[in-house]
Amino acid sequence: MKEGSAINGAAMMQASVLLAHDVGLHARPSVKLTKLAKTFAAEVELATAREGPWIDAKSIVKVMALKARKDTTLYFRAKGADAETAVSALISLVARDFEDGSSDK
Amino acid sequence: MISESLELQGRPAAAGIAVGPLIVLGDLSPQRAASGSIEIERRDFESALASAAHDLSQLITRVEGDGSDMLAFQLAYLEDETLRSRVIEVLSNGVPADEAWQQLLNAEINDYRSADDEYFAARSGDLKDLRDRVLRHLKGGVLERSLAPGAVIASDEVGPTLFLEMDWSKGGGLLLTAGSASSHVAMLARASGVPMVVGLGQVNFQDHSEAVIDGETGRAILSPNEEQRNRYLLKLANIKQQKTWETAFLRKPARSADGVHIELLINVAAIAELDRIDSAVCGGIGLMRTEFLFKDGKPLPDEEQQYAAYRRLLEWAGEKPVTIRTLDLGGDKPVRGLTSEREKNPFLGVRGIRLTLGRSNVFRTQLRALARAAVHGNLKVMLPMVTIAEEIRQAGLLLDDVMRELKAEGIACARPPLGIMVEVPAVAIAPELYDEAAFFSIGSNDLTQYVMAAARDEPGISHLNDPTHPAILKLIASVVAFGRDRNIPVSLCGDMASDPRYLRPLLRAGLRSISVAPDAIGRVKAALSEAVLSET
Questions:
Q1: Chain B closest CA to A85's CA: distance in Å?
Q2: Does the beta-carbon distance from B82 to A31 stay under 8 Å?
């Protein structure tokens, strides 16, 4: 799901994806996710509910603190120049199961 | 100064022997003198962070697998802007750098430790490791890089990165005053053959400069005298020679001197063990315990979690057989909310199949997961503590029932054969009453303790708990003979199978299939290659 809206005048991209990774948002997936988020200039945020609370998707301390398990819906939103690319890249990373299937333990 | 030799007894965490110079590590108690200047504290903190990040990025280039994921996680944590700015904020209130860092990391560590999810809870160990690495840089303690290879390291506790950083190629070992045999470091030590003893309690290491560790028995000697040193050096040499000999057999077939093939399977207690074992060295899994999924104080595993675990086992084994034992709790393995707490004699109480038949919700979930996993390989299901044939029938009916359920739901499944453990004397004495079992697996540990009426862990009567007593061997021989007669496969999965001293008596009793501890494969194959079956 993707939706664009204008909040406070800036372009805000938002989308959600189901976390299918066997072990949830554990160390390896979290490292991959924050590393990818950091490659974008946009402010990128992550939540486990549509209404938030939103956390900085570039911070592993905060991402791991979510302790998101398998079958949690992850919401991403971003604001800034490359917001749209950032959100689709992150959604795609989760959808591709962090590129390591269920081998992560 | 020459010190008197001091013998210590701790808990064994990783087998092996080490003799070497003693180095006391990471005494974090000395206080770092605070500078009193916010600017200097901040600079010291930034520099300790940078040095710790440098250590980890160096380490990450030479570690693979599970270890490298853990390092990447620690490094990402260290480089996190959120964490850095929180520490800086506390620093600017005049708190010294080491205290500020400790305060924030301790809060994180406690948060993880209290997590329901076992995986997240285990991350608290990684964060402690990270906390101490930065603290060592702040306090200028011993740096692990400068440690002499081959040294015996003494400490209160040691983090996994520190372990990975040390050079163990020249021997050496670990002596911990605290610590646990189930810690990440203990797992790493066992995997890399580094002897380790934990739980030594308060010891004044400073008076000593040399140490001996026996990781098998949990003993250590500080400042050994010449006789003690030579005795352990000789043991070490023998172990090395024996290891070389056993390793040579690891990939050979399990065959006796006169060419008789023996089915050699392995016992597995946790899935993680399989990461270190190549399935080509054994004939499959003879006993997969499932208790590791059911942890005391944790929520019961659901069908999906169990299915994923069982499927991984079958995929690891490929075409080879995998025998999974249904939940065997009770006895010495209590789980709150599942096992009875007020049994006078738990080994004669509600355990194994007696427990699961009474808790059919738990049992059904496990059987559903097993039936679903069965489509992925050669699965056999084994029932523990069977005492009357009716228990096999009831389990079979439950299995039929969940099969119907799964089919109605359109979920892929297959019915695995149901076999039993032979550990209650009634079964060993009259196996013909249990001929509906698809296979027998002799559980020699419990069979011995029940037949000899002697517990295994009672030191005063350990001589009575003898698996080679003629009464036990007679029972084993009679079960094997009955199985051969009726075409029911018989194997043995107790500890005695892993001990080469017991191999000949077992072969003489007619056994041609045994299931052993993974690290005993080479040892058992080597012993087997010297046995002549026609003579036994």
A1: 23
A2: no
CB contact under 8 A, B66 and A105: yes
Catalytic-residue membership of B413: no
Which of A23, A59, A60 is facing B119, going by the closest CB pair? A23
Determine which helix (DSSP H) or strand (DSSP E) holds B131, and give its type and residue range: helix B118-139
Instruction: Choose among A41, A101, A98, A89: nearest CA to B72.
Output: A98
CA distance A63 to A53: 12
Tokens of B269: 């207690």
Cβ–Cβ below 8 Å for A67 and B115: yes
Residues in chain A: 105
From first to last of its 536 residues, what are the pLDDT tens digits of chain B?
A: 457 889 999 999 898 999 998 888 765 455 677 778 888 899 999 999 998 898 888 888 877 666 778 888 899 999 998 899 999 999 999 899 988 999 999 999 888 888 777 777 778 888 888 998 898 888 875 555 556 778 898 988 787 777 877 788 888 999 998 877 767 788 778 877 899 999 898 888 888 889 999 998 999 999 999 999 999 999 989 888 888 888 888 889 999 999 999 999 999 888 878 887 899 999 999 999 998 788 766 678 899 999 999 999 999 999 999 999 999 987 766 676 777 777 788 889 899 999 999 988 999 999 999 999 999 999 999 999 999 999 999 999 999 999 999 999 999 999 999 999 999 999 999 999 999 999 999 999 999 999 999 987 676 787 898 999 999 999 999 999 999 999 999 999 988 998 888 999 999 999 999 999 888 899 999 999 999 887 65
Closest by Cβ to A27, choosing from B80, B108, B123: B123
Pairing verdict, β B378-383 and B321-325: parallel
For this structure, is B493 an active site residue?
Answer: yes
The whole-angstrom separation of Cα B455 and Cα B346 is 12
* Gap between the Cα atoms of A42 and A26, Å rounded: 24
Q: Which of B422, B443, B450, B421 is nearest to B345 (CA)?
A: B450
At residue B6, φ and ψ (nearest 5 deg) are -125, 120
State the smallest CA–CA distance between residue A30 and chain B in angstroms. 8
Nearest Cα of chain B lies from the Cα of A53 at a distance, in angstroms, of 16
Cβ-Cβ contacts under 8 Å, A59 against chain B: 80-83
Report chain B's terminal Cα–Cα distance, integer Å.
57
Virtual CA dihedral for B363, B368, B374, B375, nearest 10 degrees? 180
Taking the C-alpha atoms of residue B144 and residue B378, their distance in angstroms, rounded to an integer, is 47
CA distance B473 to B471: 6
> Does the predicted TM-score (pTM) go above 0.90?
no
CA distance B119 to chain A (A): 8
**ipTM above 0.85 for this complex:** no
Residue A15 is inside which H or E element, if any?
Answer: strand A10-18
Is the Cβ of A21 closer than 8 Å to some Cβ of chain B? no
Annotated active-site residue in B54, B137, B184, B261:
B184
Pairwise CB contact (< 8 Å): A59 & B272: no
Interchain pair B119, A31: CB under 8 A: no
